[in-house]
Design goal:
Two copies of one chain form a homodimer. With 348 residues, chain A is an alpha/beta fold. In chain A, 42% of the residues lie in helices and 16% in strands. Chain A has a six-stranded parallel beta sheet, sandwiched between helices. The first copy, chain A, has a four-stranded parallel beta sheet with strand order 9-8-10-11, with helices on both faces. In chain A, helix 1 packs across helix 2, helix 5 crosses helix 12 and helix 10 crosses helix 11. The first copy, chain A, is elongated. At the A-B interface, helix 4, helix 5, strand 2 and helix 7 of A face helix 4, helix 5, strand 2 and helix 7 of B. Chain B binds a DNA duplex (16 and 16 nucleotides) through helix 2 and helix 4.
Chain lengths: 348, 348
Amino acid sequence: MVTLKELAQMCGVSTSTISNILNGKPKVSEETRLRILEIVKQSGYQPNYFAQGMRMQKTRMIGIIVEDLNEFSTSPIVEAIMAYCEEKNYRAILLNMRLYDKWQDTWYDDESKLQSVLQPAIRELLSIKVDGIMYIAGHCRVINCFPEDFTIPAIVVYAISKAPGFTSVVIDDEKGSYDMTRYLISMGHRKIGLIAGIEDNLHTQKRSLGYQRALFEEQLLFNPDWIRYGNWQRQSGYEETKKLIEEGVTAIFCMNDTMAAGAYDYLYECNIKIGQDISVVGYDNKEISEYLRPNLTTSDLGLPEIGRESARIILSMMEGDCEKRNEHEIVRMPCSIVERASVSNLSE
Amino acid sequence: MVTLKELAQMCGVSTSTISNILNGKPKVSEETRLRILEIVKQSGYQPNYFAQGMRMQKTRMIGIIVEDLNEFSTSPIVEAIMAYCEEKNYRAILLNMRLYDKWQDTWYDDESKLQSVLQPAIRELLSIKVDGIMYIAGHCRVINCFPEDFTIPAIVVYAISKAPGFTSVVIDDEKGSYDMTRYLISMGHRKIGLIAGIEDNLHTQKRSLGYQRALFEEQLLFNPDWIRYGNWQRQSGYEETKKLIEEGVTAIFCMNDTMAAGAYDYLYECNIKIGQDISVVGYDNKEISEYLRPNLTTSDLGLPEIGRESARIILSMMEGDCEKRNEHEIVRMPCSIVERASVSNLSE
DNA sequence: TTGTAAGCGTTATCAA
DNA sequence: TTGATAACGCTTACAA
């Protein structure tokens, strides 16, 4: 691969002249500029990344650390980040901690497990001298990603940074859940069962809050028996639906699509017609929601928007000389209802 | 971040001594070795990646170019590659061309579109001085990825390299399809309809071949009316199923799960009971196959195995001084039937 | 066994 | 307007 020095010899000028031309420095005569540029183009010259990175402090590269690339929410976020980086002429390097792959569900209570892979990942990105680091979580929680005295811009996405000084971008669970509950109410439902996720999970808590607020605003009595805690898995959706049916609810709000599929399983077994005899909604707008029958009404997470917004924020931090780091700002991105066929209109 | 020079001052030795220790060179006294190692550990020293990469020729980094990270087959492959790299102490940098995002389905006939993003991607990885490049396609076809005189090890995954000299790792479509057809025959089916993908697609061709071979071996008459070409989309599965039903087939073999879902749509509409009145199988083992009712029998692609095997091959090329590059070898990885509830047993 | 110094390919500083 | 040179942090051949 041709180097600057070789190029200089070919052109009969010094390396610094070429370097200046290539970097758009003004102190070059137009005449040589054009001549050199032509030769450079023909040579197929590509600057050596290491030499450049070593010399300058900027690399125009951001590091993305993902908890697990196979988590359904991750690739759309990453794809959007990369799209934005491409627009702005940045590169992105992805580090995949593969947390689920390594430890299934056993890691998120275990701070030491996380840190044992996160710290090397961060060190590695630091040694690559990325200009900024994005942490993409697999699900929302308060999380200790970066030390408080971190030297480069960093952001946490789809979770909330414990350390202040880092912006977090998350979905607006409370509003999304509120909207969904209001939607069910607007369809005439008054007895709305809720199949929540794991109880101490942040998504669960926020979405529960949204549910309660909607009921409250509509003056609907809050019945604690109508709130059941699942574990996000299909089977738990099945089981809790059974109990909710006994309670006589007319609509079931599942906090994810997977549990909604479990609800479908039970209702199908009982020959209760979804979208007619009972209504079911989910959350996440996963691909499966279009394959369940009837198609599931659910809440879209706006994953690409999250990715794009996070990228926008961190690039602006990087270019703004990293010093308008809004202290512990939490950006909440809206979810949007996608209406399909699983809700019946009781008010008609 | 602490440098080798600073470390040398702290320890009162030269940089080369420390460098030798860190790189396991033998010409160091045990005494100083231990003393230095301790200080190094405490300092949190991390070698500068650029300096290292500039000095040596190896970076222990491989570049992964994916056609589109959002394609369902891509992340599992990438995840497995990264797992293997981690085991072997390599890093991986991911470049996402986002072909579908940019051009939907309009790019794969258009060599110039592909090259317009692929060439910069390759140049970029080259300038980063990766030790090897893996190209991960979104679907199988013969593809012009790398120039014949490419200087570093490279491999194409989930597609077949046009240029000889590059190993390709693909799924064994023909065998997978053959197995599936044999399976249907073993369940007593004699009239087996096939909903193929787009006609000039490689998956389509290979799977058609497998289907034919199975019929032939069982001395079943091949009926061309039972082969219908869809376009991989759900709607085409719906439409072709309609025609196949008119033909009176007892089983429908769809070349992907998405078209199988379309078949389900039509059969549901007609109140034909899948797994009883008719049998349907898919291909891909996408998540949706577990959510269709009844659960879809399909063929698993073994994506993680593909990723792992590709990584194994390229790392061995890299470490074997890049000169046992098997000329144009095509590695075919097996698919495996996952039996669920969409096939009835006619022979009982 | 340890230290010195050259060199990897750039960019920045400063002199010509 | 251009060119010589130092510097970035590391590894390695060679000298001590």
